[in-house]
Structures are given as C-alpha cells and as structure tokens.
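Below is how a single chain appears once it has passed through the pipeline. First comes the sequence as given, then the structure the pipeline wrote out for it. We keep one example in the README because the format questions we get most often are answered faster by looking than by reading.
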Amino acid sequence: MTNFCLITDRYRNRKLFNLLGFCNLGEKEDANIMKILVLNCGSSSIKYKLYDNDKELAEGLIEKIGEKKSKITTYKQGIDLTIKQILGSGKIKGIEEIDAVGHRVVHGGTISKPCLIDKKVINVIEKFSELAPLHNPANLSGIIEMGKILPNAKHVAVFDTAFHQTMPKIACIYALPYKYYEKFGIRRYGFHGTSHKYAAHRAAEILGKKFNDLNLISCHLGAGCSIAAVKNGKVIDTSMGFTPLEGLIMGTRPGDIDPGILVYLQKKLKISLNQLDEILNKKSGLLGISGVEKDFRNVLKCARKGNFRCKLALDMFCYRVKKYIGAYAAALGKVNAIIFTGGIGENNDFVRDCASEITCLDIEIDKKKNRMMNGKEGIISAKNSKIAVLVIPADEERMIAIETQEIVKTLKAT
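Resulting structure:
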C-alpha cells in the first residue's frame, strides 16, 4: 500500500483539502507556537486534550454517545460540545487559535507514520473500517465533524497500527495461502501502537537508557488489551493481529481462540456473519466468561465476593498476560523492562503482580511499591529483580500531539 505521508506537491494543492472542509492549508504559517487539539473518538465517547506546544491547557471526556437515555445521540453533537467545553475553559479566546488537530485512528493498514489528512487518507480509514468496526467509523466521524468546524487547521491522522509496521514477515504473516496476503493484505497489523510507543519511550527516560538500546515488553491493558515486544526501538511482535480481536482476553473480546470454533458455532446456532461478529466483539471476553460484567473493576469486586465465574475470568485474564510476556521474552532473547499501562495496567496492582509469577525470568515485584503505584508512574520491581517492571500511565494524547506537531513543522519547512 502506498504510504501517504509527507511531503509532496499534492499537499500544496488545496483542491484536495476541499473534502470535508480541509482547505486553506498554510494560512497560519507564521505562527511560532502551536495550539494542538488532540481528538480521540471511541465507539461511544470523545476524549480530547488541548496543548500549547507541549503544555496541556485543557482536557475533557464526553461519554455514552448514541446510547439509550443519552442526550448526545450523534458525533456532531459530541464535537459541538467538545468545542463548547474548550471555549468554556477560558484557555483560548476563539477556535481560530487552534493550529492543528491530531486525530487518533485505530487502523491504517501498512501506513507507518502520521499523515496529513487528505482524500486518500480518508479512503484508507474507510477501507479498514471493516477490520476495526468499533473504532475506525467513530474516528472518521470525528475527522469529518471537526474538519467542518476547523477548516483552516491542519488535520493529522495518527494511526494505532503505525508503530507495529516494523514487524518482520515471520511475525506478521499468517500461515494461510500466501496469495491472501498478496491480494487482500491479510496479515497481522497490531494496535494500541501510539500507547506502546509513548510507554516505551517514557520507560527509556525513566531508566536513563537510550530507547534504541533497550528490549521492552509493553502491556497495554484496558477495555482493549495488547502486548508488544520492542527490540532496540522496533516492534518485532504484538498480540493483536489482522483485527483488534486477537491476543489477550478483553472486556468484550475473546482474544485467541481456535478459528474452527467460529465455523462450528455458525453451523450449530444457525446465525449470520453479522451475529457472529457481534458475539466476538460485544459478548465475549470478561463479559462472556463472568456473565455479569465487562468492566475489570467490577469483575474483581464480584470475584472477591465469591463469584466463581468472575474469579475464573480474572484468572484467565492474568494467565493470558503471563503467557504472552513469557512468549515475548523468548522472542526478544533478553528483556530489560516490562511496562504496564492502560486503564487496568496502570491502576490495578492485582494484575501487575502476575509478572512476578513468571519465575523463569527472575522478576521480583516490590509488593509495597506496587500497591502504592496505582495510577502513578514509577518502577515497581525490587532492587534485585533482573528485569525492571514499570507502571506508566497511558498518555496517547501527548504522543499524538508530539507527532502532529512534527508533521506540521516539517510541512512548514518545505
């Protein structure tokens, strides 16, 4: 696939930016300080942060978009509320002060860098919507609506799949007929790349080491979960694959399963592909096992009250995390550090304790530090642990702001 990133004559052709209001590129080229809005549109939420260069000015979260009893039924309403909240913060006098918008996009195929948004990038996002049905359509809605409101800003797509495009073919190609890879692009793409990239770079800073000299295992654990093996600054493997369904057990997604199960279920239940897709994306994972909850915190509460299925769900979740850490330690050969990030990873010492159970890696967790570090950044491994273990709160928005700024600066320099 063509890499639609930086800097060609097409970006100077403003006709391409008439689509969705992305026009008038370059009218604020003399600005020295950039105000960057980072927009993260989820399946039913909008998370945003406003930066002045690297200084965070404002942030907010709009939830339950399109859900029953919610007053916000569309992304247009959500984006309008986002702008209202930003202006209400008093950090800017008018929306024209926003120089650029960095949009989180989950699936970008083989695009390996952030991209200034044009028609071709829009087409890529649309193309891969069928592989990330809970994410790409929402990401695109945010791009469309914000593009109408801020037509003079520079809009940049930062892809979750980009960081993983250094994976070698032995790790990213499935053992299917090779022609399917060539014709349909069926391969492992990986996700949560922006989060893994931020956590890996931040870990290097905390450890006082050069990023390219480290071998890291990054565990992004949240509603969606993935683990990445980073060798000398490059991803060599990651747990999510062609879609965000593969790998770890998640809130409503099953992770690794025997593909034969899908054929069996379709025959037994006599269900459509759409119904099967709903089972995989919305009814499996912690929710499917526990039968009561998809939220890890609530599953943990129920397990502690004696609910057998909730305890089973927790044990399965942690087992899968341990198994992937062990597998990636073997793939890397040497591991300098293991990172826990994401809503579960950074806030739940119960899950992080599982790393110490991988006795073959000589990991030792400082239990007291681990309990104290929920929601905080720092090292939780004991001094004699052969592998450092860190908690790094996710900050995808800051990474998106940094990458958006780099794209705009490069554009200005041409």
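The radius of gyration is 21 Å.

See the next section for the split statistics.
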